[in-house]
Amino acid sequence: MNPDEINAFMASDPLASTAVALFFIGVAGMFVMCVARQRMSVIDSALAMVGVTKVKGRDWVFNLVHFAVLAVPLVLLCAALVLELEGQPQ
Predict the structure, then answer these.
(1) Contact assessment for residue 86 and residue 28, using Cβ atoms and an 8 Å cutoff
(2) CA-wise closest residue to 26 among 81, 79, 75, 71
(3) Predicted local confidence at residue 89, as pLDDT
(4) What span, in angstroms and rounded, lies between the C-alpha atoms of 67 and 58?
(5) Is 59 helix (H, G, I), strand (E, B) or coil?
(6) What pLDDT, on the 0 to 100 scale, is given for residue 90?
(7) What is the pLDDT of residues 35-64, one digit of tens each?
(8) How far is CA 21 from CA 50, 65, 80, in A?
(9) Shortest CA distance to 39 belongs to which of 9, 18, 59, 63?
């Protein structure tokens, strides 16, 4: 698949677009969780979201949300790509 086909696939496939939406919603939720639950400043939370600083006082809830934000969209995207590639001739 060339980049134009991938972009068209990501925009048109329901599983792929759901994966992208869940990822961005999850990152926004983690940002809010860092500010509200972890008592981090907005700047520290933004730096933690891009990986510059560590999240202070991580607990099991944050670790669970972090895993879900990464794993669920990845599984959805893999399922969408498998379904897309199964329908194409070799």
Answers:
(1) no
(2) 71
(3) 66
(4) 13
(5) coil
(6) 60
(7) 998 889 999 999 998 889 888 888 898 899
(8) 18, 15, 14
(9) 59
Q: d(Cα 73, Cα 23) in Å, to the nearest integer?
A: 6
Q: Are 9 and 1 in contact (CB under 8 A)?
A: yes
Give the whole-angstrom CA distance, residue 14 versus residue 4: 17
Specify the residue for token string 């893999």: 78
Phi, psi angles (nearest 5°) of residue 55:
-80, 125
pTM of the model: 0.81
Q: For 14-25, how does the pLDDT look when each residue is reduced to its tens digit (9 = 90+)?
A: 999 999 999 999
Q: How far is CA 68 from CA 17, 18, 41, in A?
A: 17, 14, 23
What phi and psi values does residue 38 have, to the nearest 5 degrees?
-90, -5
**How far, in Å, CA of 75 to CA of 57, rounded?**
28
